[in-house]
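A quick aside before the break. I want you to see a complete sequence-to-structure record at least once, exactly as it would be stored in a machine-readable document. Don't worry about memorizing anything.
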Amino acid sequence: SRPAPSPSAGEEMPAIPGRPPVLCPGCPHRGIFYVLHKLKLLVTGDIGCYTLGGLPPLEGMDTCVCMGASIGMAHGCELADPSLAERTVGVIGDSTFFHSGLTGLLNMVYNNGRGTVIILDNRTTAMTGHQDHPGTGKTLMGRDAPAINLEALVRALGVRRVQVVDPLDVARLTAVIKEELAAPEPSVIIARRPCALLQKERRPAVAVDAELCTGCRACLKLSCPAISVREQKAAVDAITCTGCGLCVQVCKFGALQEGGRQNG
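That is the input. The structure line, written in tokens, reads:
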């Protein structure tokens, strides 16, 4: 058959379906905002790729003003209503923290705050093109530089409660956030996993067992571009899936399986 003729000049083109920007497949930030949304917390956000965590369906961020604002706003919420300290977290990226988060955290400690701050440490300045920062051990010119240790830096600012977690480990991440929110002093959670675009090796794509899938669409709440629905069942694009396993943890029916063979 002959190809369809191209639209002539002046002819109206069909509209492109709207699609909001989303976090990349395998992005470590996705686990953080999924858990924050599930816990129904007040989340003061910041500037970076992770700002996308405020969009549906993740909806895990309530404020975003400017670089470095997250920690000060979390502390401000506590000052306005002390009871908010038990359900408010400030979220800031590693690069943004080095850039403009230190003073906010120091202010929280100095003024006897008890807030919880989550530093999203993906080992780069991802949003603007993977530039280095003081924590990577390289200058912007690619020369070797001292790699500033985030844990040591946070403790030097007076924070005694510091925990490092894998943001794609939903169970432990949830437990740590609950634990630190209950603490009567400032705390910092460092959610550490490299940006998905920096990973040199990819794990096998997640497979779907169609017989076990109930079509509940819980996996779609992760806002992962690799997951869709076909014939009322979950489907995973093996090309874009990084095998991070987050969706496997979310599925309650065992229909999403790591490294398995596609069934159905």
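Two observations worth writing down. The mean pLDDT is 93. The domain at 29-198 is CATH 3.40.50.970 (Rossmann fold). We'll return to this after the break.
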